[in-house]
Write a structure and sequence with these properties.
The chain is of the alpha/beta class. Helices cover about 35% and strands about 30% of the residues. It has 2 domains: about 230 residues, FAD/NAD(P)-binding domain (3-Layer(bba) Sandwich), CATH 3.50.50.60; about 90 residues, D-Amino Acid Oxidase, subunit A, domain 2 (D-Amino Acid Oxidase, Chain A, domain 2). It starts with a strand and ends in a 6-residue tail after the last helix.
Length: about 350
């Protein structure tokens, strides 16, 4: 007889959120991770933008109030050296903020305070095994963008407030996310360029960033940490296999443009919790099939939009630049289109219940 109803592999934000969402379900839940923080070793650092929909999910599981986040009230989108720009703000979407920025490590630590995380060496047998760790494996659809994400924490003069920036430069898109008076940087670059900049002296790095981004966010005066990560699209062909379920990065690993990866994963966790709450043992296979069907449209549309944006914004040709400029100009001139786009980025393909 299984020792647990639900075994969750991976104690990142998605796995922890699922465990919290099942806390009062009556199900026995075992959360485990191979990378439990120990000996003061820090968790991965990178800026994460939580959508308003993710805020609603985290509030429902009782985790939101403990988070120290910076709201994004507006996003300025532009491209260097070419026409075309637009501005999305919270009023476009009818929400108090388009998103909320937090460091990934800080988010994970805050969520783990409220759950018990076991070592993954000897997990129990379970009726349902949920994979929420690592990147999508097995039979996957894959695309190598041949770029890396250079992430950093940037100090600017004047300090960051509540505006985010997405700037399409010659080397690749640059996102600046407000984080407690500073900016979280996500810069998509060719691997050789990312490797040289991540190890460059601070002033040389800041000069390169200023040259690529321009003066829209002020003067860059300091950098605290830097890291780089390869950028790929990896999507599992099957989200459910028997009694095993794949959510978050284990189901789909996305390009960070538009910041959809973690937000899609949190929607996975919420929908799976809702499914498991109403699934007696004998009905589990049918319930998991319903979960897979329920997530299919949201995941497919989010993946398609993210992949299309990533490939479009990596294009450096004059034709690609002109197409981006026309798209941004049209969006800027059409309030209903801005509202539709903003809400799609916030809530995914379907609105929150």
């Amino acid at each position: 007889m299984p020792a647990a109803d639900v075994l969750i592999r991976g104690a990142g934000p998605v796995g922890c959120t699922l465990a919290l969402a099942l806390r009062d379900s009556g199900l026995s839940v075992f959360l485990c991770d191979r990378k439990i923080e120990s000996n003061g070793k820090p968790l991965s650092r990178r800026p994460i933008a939580l959508s308003h929909a993710s805020r609603l999910i985290l509030a429902r599981v009782g985790a939101w109030d403990a988070l120290e986040t910076t709201p994004i009230e507006a996003v300025h989108v532009s491209q260097a050296g070419r026409f075309g720009r637009t501005r999305l703000d919270a009023a476009d979407a009818g929400v108090p903020a388009l998103g909320y920025v937090i460091d990934y490590g800080a988010l994970t630590r805050s969520l783990r305070v409220n759950v018990r995380v076991h070592d993954a060496e000897s997990p129990p047998e379970a009726r349902c095994v949920v994979h929420g760790e690592g990147v999508a494996q097995g039979e996957v659809r894959e695309r190598d963008y041949r770029h890396e994400a250079l992430t950093a924490l940037i100090e600017a003069d004047p300090p960051a407030r509540a505006d985010a920036h997405e700037r399409f430069a010659a080397d690749g898109p640059i996102a600046l996310l407000p984080m407690a008076g500073r900016y979280g940087l996500v810069w998509s670059l060719a691997p050789e360029r990312a490797a040289s900049l991540v190890d460059a002296p601070p002033q040389e790095f800041l000069a390169a960033l200023a040259e690529a981004f321009g003066p829209r966010a002020g003067r860059f005066v300091g950098v605290e940490w830097r890291a780089r990560t390869p950028l790929t699209l990896r999507v599992r062909r099957a989200r459910v296999s028997g009694s095993e379920v794949y959510i978050g990065n284990a189901a789909q690993t996305l390009h960070p443009v538009a910041g959809q990866g973690l937000n899609l994963g949190l929607r996975d966790a919420w929908d799976l919790a809702e499914t498991l709450r109403g699934a007696p043992g004998a009905a589990l296979p049918h319930a998991l099939a319903r979960f897979a069907a329920r997530r299919r449209f949201d995941a497919a549309m989010t993946i398609r939009v993210t992949d299309s944006l990533a490939r479009s914004f990596l294009g450096a040709s004059p034709i690609a630049g002109a197409a981006r400029g026309l798209a941004m100009a049209a969006l800027d001139a059409t309030p209903p289109a801005r509202r539709f786009f903003a809400r799609r980025m916030i809530f995914g393909a379907g609105a929150m219940p």
